Amino acid sequence: MKKIKLLRSLILVPVLLLIAVSCTEEKTGTSAGQTDILKDVSTGASIYEDKCLKCHGANGQGGICPNLVDGEWKYGGTDEDIYKSIAEGRPGGMPNWDKELGKDKINSLVAYIRSLGTS
Ligand code: HEC
Fold first, then answer.
1. 46 Cβ contact partners less than 8 Å away, ≥ 6 residues apart
2. Cα(94) to centroid of ligand 1, in Å?
3. Which atom of ligand 1 is closest in space to residue 90's alpha carbon?
4. What is the pTM of this model?
5. Parts of the chain with a pLDDT under 70
6. 66 CB less than 6 Å from ligand 1?
């Protein structure tokens, strides 16, 4: 049983990474350091699952909270805007995360949200 589980995650991880690469490639081209983006996106994905999914839903589609992948932004959709939404929070019920997560982790969340969305 254990072996099968291990095997599955060994297969799943590269596949997920591949998907992440192909998505970011489409949006940002290949000029930005690809391995950096890849690292950010996968780190961001696990932080997202841990901290954000319960409100924003799997894959950022919203739920009780705003959709993060439809390209519509209440507070703006540039990297800086999204960073600010996460770091400082927003009045309608979005907590602030700068103390808990810090700059690097928030940046990887921004990369992850970008990799998901149409923005
Ligand atoms: C307790 C529920 C909750 C959690 C947890 C949460 N959010 Fe939010 N988030 C909200 C709400 C509610 C809003 C809308 C705030 C408003 O409209 O003023 C929001 C807004 C946002 C926005 C701005 C959306 C826009 O349209 O401009 C972003 C980006 C965002 N959240 C990202 C995240 C990320 C990344 C995390 C994980 C670190 C996270 N949120 C965790 C509830 C949450």
1. none
2. 4
3. 18
4. 0.76
5. 1-33, 118-119
6. yes
Instruction: Say if residues 98 and 106 touch (Cβ distance below 8 Å).
Output: yes
The answer to whether 114 and 20 are in contact (CB under 8 A) is no
pLDDT of residue 4: 61
Name the residue with the closest Cα to ligand 1, atom 2: 55
Number of Cα atoms under 13 Å in the Cβ half of residue 102: 1
Question: How many Å apart are CA 27 and CA 71, to the nearest integer?
Answer: 13
Q: Which CATH number fits the domain that encloses residue 53?
A: 1.10.760.10
Question: Which residues are registered as beta bridge partners of 94?
Answer: 90
The number of distinct structural domains making up the chain is: 1
Ligand 1 neighbour 92 (Cβ under 6 A): yes
Report residue 32 as tokens.
Answer: 């930005």
Determine which residue's CA is closest to atom 41 belonging to ligand 1. 52
